Every structure is written in structure tokens, then in C-alpha cells.
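agent> step 3/5: call structure_predict on target 'Glutamine synthetase' (Polyrhizophydium stewartii).
agent> reason: downstream docking stage needs a structural representation; sequence fetched in step 2, passing through unchanged.
tool.input:
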Amino acid sequence: MNARVAAASAAFSRPPRSVEWPRASPATAGDNHVLVSEIFGQNVFTLKTLESVLPKPVFAHFVNQVKGLAPIDKPTADAVAHAARVWAMARGATHFSHWFQPQNGTTAEKHDSFLTLKTSVNNGLEEARAIDALSGSQLLQSEPDASSFPSGGVRSTFEARGYTIWDTSSPMFVRAGPHGTATLFIPSVYISFNGEALDEKTTLLRSCDALSVAAVRLLRIMGDADVARVRTTLGTEQEFFLVDRGTYRLRPDLKITGRTVMGAAPPKHQQLEDHYFGKMPSRVIACMSECELELYKLGVPIKTRHNEVAPNQFEVAPIFEDASVAVDHNLLLMATLHEVAHRHGLKVLFHEKPFKGINGSGKHCNWSMATDSGDNLLDPTANPEKNPRFLLFLVAVLDAVNRHGALLRATIASASNEHRLGAHEAPPGIVSVFLGDHLAEVLDAVAEGRPVKSLVAPSHQAVRLGGTVLDLKVASLPTIARDLTDRNRTSPFAFTGNKFEFRAVGSSQSPSFPTAVLNAAVAESLTAIADTLEARKGGAATASTSDVMDVVQELIKTTKRIRFEGNNYSQEWAAEAARRGLPNIKSSPVAFKKLLEPEHMNVLVKQGIMSEAEVKARYHILVDKYVKDQMIEANTVKDMVRTRVLPGVFSFSKGLAESVAAHKTAGIDVDSLAEKRTLERVAGMTTKLFDAADELEREIAAVEALADEEAAAEMAGRVLTVAIGHVREAADALEAVVGDSHWPFPKYADLLF
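tool.output (status=ok):
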């Protein structure tokens, strides 16, 4: 209890951290704050910077390499490496690092100094001289140990060689380090000695290329010959919790598992919905402002910040970027939030469900496709029913989800996300698509060959381009534009104006694999559509509008089963989805197996996005992590009960017993004493907790005894979750009765308020 009091006191007495926003030079602009646009990307080695220091032919060759038109040669690599080193050292860099994304949900880095020794001969004697250098070969690749990263069996633990290779499509950047130094980070892919992908980025880059090839081919069949590349765009809304670091360190479960495995609900949590979009606490806004300052310098385009529904829950969202860069930036965001929160005495929690009984966190991935000239292929324009290109790309996405919804479900499956999905705060395990009333009517009208019905009923609403205008009937207020469709926050995959929002992705996971699989599925559908149109157009240069609309009509009909405009949380939808033949995958081990089903594996293998070995490796990595996560949680619960909760309860019971004994010695009838009644109540509850802990230990031993990883995953998900729930139920009941001074952990009220 003393530690809890000290932590609470420290939280209130801690002086606020002050970070000055950069100011303009007094000689040029007075003492004004620097604009965000002026500091944005200042720690990024941009193409513009590179162009300013490289000879034009060398820069042109590098640009062609980035576009995939030519391989990079050693002179170009050496020139870029030299320029990057000089630029980075001017910003305090002493080291460089290939920054990559192993399949463990985090990023990895190995720092190498610019320092090297150059030997020269002086008076006939060799002499080593220290110089700073970065060669082209050092820039292009490095060799971190591959034995300790997840490989899913493609590498043995005694086979250590792996390679990081510079990803030229994502810019290098500098991050500050200790003592005024910095490190040059080189975004990289990570592959094994035999060339298998050991990371997240390689698969994502392959999928972006596959989608681009398929989309460009389809556009050319439709008569658009000017598009050379189609970009996958992504914007990731990141939800998270911020809690005081002093109380956090007193919670073993938060430190080890990222969530509270026990804890009774406080009288007030999110019932009043007063936290949502409310005023941010000063300590939080200071933390987020400093985080944004660092992210702006790193070229991360953070646009939005606000309170989320649950107390101490927040969200930030960026401007859309190319998918690969957007993933890099999301992982940078998570790392920066972690570091900056620490400076403010806070701890950021990315777990999907850190607190029972209140909303968890997701990572909403807003995905679209755009041409190299910036034309969004999912923009419905004012009259979507008269826009064949939009309709064709829209139904291609619907077809992809219809074919591979179960595979998309596998990409967001994890032990942590299981606590959130389907919990009336996040989409269920049924993958469906929300389009909105207007767009749904457009597709139905196209499929039935009839005019689109007007959805504007009230007489005071005037039709306007792209939507409607709402007259608020207040003279001082302007009319406002209303979107074509409402939003559906219960849908796992919702169309939101000119993009799809994949809402089921977990807050703690990298958005890379879900995006890669979505790209792959859409690329397959685009290819199938292109094949159909190619066959139909015969010898014609391009497909006719009637042929395009025929394909659109067919796909509208075949994909209608995945379209759902209602409440995805409802039991009625679960029953309706079953009638439609849509799988309701509630268990992660069941979801993981979808990766191995031929129809889903082939969408990755046939397009060269993953090899069969890489798919199987991914499956084994996911299963292995799932079992380990479940076992870590189970053992954490067991230890907390045995070494913290029960001793605290015994101490409380001892005090009650001594009080009862003292009253009895004084000759007082103790049968009606509150102490005795409480003691009897606590004794029964303690026995229940003790028995539940014993049950949990038996289940832990049973899972540990299984050599087969699939059987272990199935059993862990089935029995450990139940056993942990029994322990939690008993512990939470005791928390509501045992004296506060005897409870060993900060309670929800301490953590959330």
C-alpha cells in the first residue's frame, strides 16, 4: 500500500516537463514559432536533398533504380552513401543502422559506427588513422544474426546468417541519441541466407508491386495508357492508452503482458461517455505535442489527435501515404510515443484490451489505390453509377473480400486481439463490407439495370454535387454538406468516401501483413477481371463500356453476400451471416489455419508475394507466438495470485480474526459482528480463488506437456482462457471486499483516472 500511495503522490507532485517549440531566427523572422511546414521532414534524407548534392546523371540513375527501371550500381551506391553520411553527421550522427521489421511485431536495429581505420605508411612504418566513412556496400546491405528472430522453421537456430537490404523506396532519417549524438537509420528489408523473407516489409513491397501490375494492366484494357504505376495508399489511425508510469510499474501484468489480467471495474469508467473528444489532460497534451514535434521532424504527417471513448484512451491519425512508407511511419509513431511518454512519467499501452469492461484499442487501416498522377481509383465522383472505372475497381475489392475474407481474418488474429474482436466495441470474426445506403443503392440499380433511386426525402434538403445539403433551420448557421453515406463503426471493412477502412486490425500489430494480404487479394481479382475483359474485347484495342458494365453487374451479384449495412454486433447478423455462408471465426488458431488452405495460400504464392515455404513459416510463427502469449499470461496470473493477492488477503483475514478474538475475549457476542461476517465471506471467496489458481496450474502443465504446436495452440485458446477467467472472477470479487490497504496492486481507479 505504501508503494501505491507513493506512486499516486508522485504523479500529482511531478513537475511538468517543458519542451520549447522551435522558434525562427530573430535575424530573419523575429521571435515567432516555426511553422510545422518549416520543420516537417528536417531529419529526413529526402530526394530533394539528394538531388542537391549529387551530379545530375548519378541522381537520375538513382531515381530510375527507385522506380525499378534499373539496378543500382556501385558508383551510384557509393555516391549516395557519401552524401547520406555527410548530411547525417552534420546533424550529430555518429552511427548508422539498417532499420527493419522482423516478424515479432516490432522493429529492429543494429548500430555501426562511421568510424573506420585507414592504414598508411609513414617513414616505412604502417600507421592506422581514424576516419569517418560509409561505403555503398555498407549502405546496400548488412548482416544481423538471423538465429534469434522468428523464422517459422525456414532457418535453424544454428544457422545465423541473414541480410538486411536497403529499401530505396523509403527515405533514410536521423534520430537523436544520448549526449547530443544521433543515428542514421536506413529502412531495410530482412531476408534469410537462402532468400526467404524474414520480415514484414518484403512481403508488403511484393504485394504493392503485384497490385500495381494488375491495376495498370486493367486500366490499359479500359483505354487508359498513361498510367505507369498504381500506388497503394494507407493511413493508419492509432489508438492507445496512457497511464502513469508510477502505477504501471506496480502492476506485474501490465509490465509483462501489456494488459491487466485482474482488476475490478471502478464505479465510473466510460458510462457517461464524457471522455470522448473531451479536453485532453495537460500532461497528456504536453506528451503528445512533444511526440508530434519529433514526428514532424521525421516526416511523419500526423494530422489528428483526440480523446477516445475509454478514460485515458487516445488516438492519433496521419495523412495518407504510400503503403510501405505509411507502415514505416506507423512503427516510428509507436516507438516515438513510447519514448516520449517515458519522459513525461507516462506509459503507453498498445494492447488491444488492457482493461476489462471498457473499450479496447484498434488500428484502423484506411486503404485505397491511386495512379502515379494522384488519381484516386476509389473516388466515386458525383455520379458513381456513370463511372465505369470506379465501379470496376470497387467490385474488384468486393470480389477480393468475398474470396478471401477468411484470409483477411487470419491477418488480424492474435491472442491480444481476441479480447477485443466481437466484444461490442470492435467488429466480430465475420468479415463483411459496409458501403452505405447510397452506394449500396447504386450497385443494386446497376445490377438490376434500372435508374438509381433518390435517397433524399425531406423537402428542405437540396441535392448537391457529391451528396446533400442539410438546412439546420437556424438563420445564423450555414447549410452544411452531408456525405453520400453514413459511417458504420461496427463494420470490419467499411467504405468511407474514397477508401476502405479495415477496422479490425489490432492496435499493437504492424499493419504490414493485413495490408499485404489485402493487396494480394485485390491484385488477384483485378487480374481475373482483366483476363475476362481481354477475352471479351477480342481484337479491339480496348474493352467496350458495355463489356465493362457486364463484368460489373456480374460481380455485384456474386459479391452481394458480403455486403452488410446493419449492426455487426448483433446476434441477428451472426445468424444471417451463417445463412449466407460467411465464416464466423472466433478463435485465432482456427483463423491461422486459413493461411494453409490452398485457395488462400495460392493468392500469395501464384503472384510471387510469398513462397509456399514463407506462408508455412508465417503460420508457424503466428501459432508459436499465440501459445507463448497465452502461457505468459497464465503464468503471470498464477504468480500474481500466489505471491501477491493471497498474502494480502491472508493479512486482511488475520486482522479480522484478531478483531473477532478480541471482541470474544471482552465477552461480546461475535456472531453478529461485521468482522466475523466479513471474515466468513472472505474465507469462502479465498478458497474459491485458491482452487481456481490450482485449476490454472493444472491447465498450464497440460499445455506445456503437448509437443505438437497446433494442439498446444488449440488447448491454450480453449482451456487457459477459461481458467484465467475463473481466477480473475474470484480475484476481482475479493478486490471489492478486501481492505484497500491490503490489496497489492493499483486498482482501475488509480490507473484510469
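agent> step 4/5: record observation. The longest helix spans residues 612-665.
agent> proceeding.
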